[in-house]
């Protein structure tokens, strides 16, 4: 059954009815200064956007515009922060904040998946109507937890960890490498795949604050208790949340230092001057005349 597009322009009517002029349409009030729509019907290169997005009461104007841009892109287009920052002038920080807004309100779904080759990739789904599953989404079976043995205490959930501004694949890959390397310094920090998947976003939140992996490794392994660690993942999650450093302040790139050439002696007047190589000083170079070549007369 076809759905009616209430925002589409009605069929053209005769000008005799007095309603075809924009200022005479129903709802137009030229005295109040309100907007008057002069719409043209699109037949190619258009995207249908719901008013729930265009007139969203909680999304920022940047988030609404970014959602419209993303929904207009073809499938498979890159929408990571670096690509969007190269396309728009708002910068990486504002674009990352807008992506978080869209994710919080259901217009974006971002999940990390591990490929068969062991790589961690970010899968991004743009939803033009939040709360409704897209037809392209593949159904995934719900993972089942192993049955708890009789008399075994229930497994407690790990503490929450900080989340990065954007789950870039390279950032999460570096975070997993940090977690995988913890056991080399302390065998008690051997983590399961489930533990790594839970802790990786927290490590990524540290790395995006301009910290090297060695600094995160030291913060997670320094001053560990001497007694056995029954829940090492819980300890690491607590440290990631409690010791999260602040976002570094913005620093403009430093201006390049002026090149200071060494002192040279002029080959003509023996005056000292600074230059990249030996030769004549500025005065002598200005007085030097171009050499003339004598041609034999014909």
Q: Mind explaining what this structure looks like?
A:
With 298 residues, the chain is mainly α. Among the domains are: 47-114 and 124-130, Arc Repressor Mutant, subunit A (Orthogonal Bundle), CATH 1.10.10; 169-242, no CATH class. It is 31% helix and 7% strand. It contains ten helices and four strands. It has a two-stranded antiparallel sheet. It has a two-stranded antiparallel sheet with strand order 3-4. Strand 3 and strand 4 form a beta hairpin. The longest helix has 15 residues, at 193-207.
Question: What can be said about this structure in brief?
Answer:
The chain is mostly helical and 298 residues long. Helix content is 31%, strand content 7%.
Form type? flat
Number of helices: 10
Distance between the termini: 98 Å
Strand fraction band?
5-15%
Question: How many strands, what sense, and barrel or not for the largest sheet?
Answer: 2 strands, antiparallel
Indicate the low-confidence ranges by residue numbers. 11-20, 133-140
Write the element-wise H/E pattern from the N-terminal end onward: HHHHEEHHHHHEEH
Blueprint (SSEs and pairs):
Layout lengths: L50 H4 L6 H12 L8 H7 L4 H13 L3 E7 L5 E7 L42 H12 L1 H4 L7 H15 L5 H9 L10 H11 L20 E3 L6 E3 L7 H6 L11
Helix pairs in contact: 2-4, 5-7, 5-8, 7-9
Descriptive tags:
about 300 residues, mainly alpha, Arc Repressor Mutant, subunit A, two-stranded antiparallel sheet, 10 helices, 4 strands, about 30% helix, flat
């Amino acid at each position: 059954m076809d759905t009616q597009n209430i925002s589409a322009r009605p069929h053209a009517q005769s000008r005799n009815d007095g309603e075809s002029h924009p200022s005479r349409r129903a709802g137009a009030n030229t005295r109040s200064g309100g907007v008057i729509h002069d719409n043209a019907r699109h037949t190619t290169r258009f995207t249908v956007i719901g008013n729930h997005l265009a007139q969203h009461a909680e999304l920022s104007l940047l988030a609404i515009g970014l959602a419209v841009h993303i929904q207009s892109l073809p499938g498979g287009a890159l929408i990571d922060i670096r690509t969007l920052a190269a396309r728009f002038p708002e910068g990486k920080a504002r674009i990352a904040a807008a992506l978080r807004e869209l994710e919080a309100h259901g217009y974006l779904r971002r999940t990390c998946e591990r490929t068969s080759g062991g790589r961690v990739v970010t899968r991004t789904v743009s939803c033009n109507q939040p709360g409704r599953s897209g037809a392209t989404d593949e159904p995934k079976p719900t993972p089942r937890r192993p049955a708890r043995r009789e008399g075994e205490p229930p497994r407690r959930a790990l503490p929450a960890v900080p989340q990065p501004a954007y789950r870039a694949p390279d950032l999460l890959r570096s975070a997993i490498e940090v977690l995988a390397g913890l056991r080399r310094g302390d065998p008690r920090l051997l983590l399961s795949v489930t533990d790594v998947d839970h802790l990786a976003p927290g490590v990524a939140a540290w790395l995006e604050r301009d910290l090297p992996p060695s600094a995160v490794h030291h913060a997670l392994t320094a001053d560990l208790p001497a007694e056995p660690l029954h829940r090492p993942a819980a300890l690491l999650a607590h440290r990631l949340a409690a010791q999260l450093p602040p976002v570094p302040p913005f620093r403009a790139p430093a201006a390049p230092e002026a090149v200071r050439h060494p002192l040279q002696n002029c080959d003509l007047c023996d005056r000292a001057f600074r230059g990249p190589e030996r030769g004549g000083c500025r005065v002598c170079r200005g007085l030097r005349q171009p050499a003339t070549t004598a041609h034999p007369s014909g």
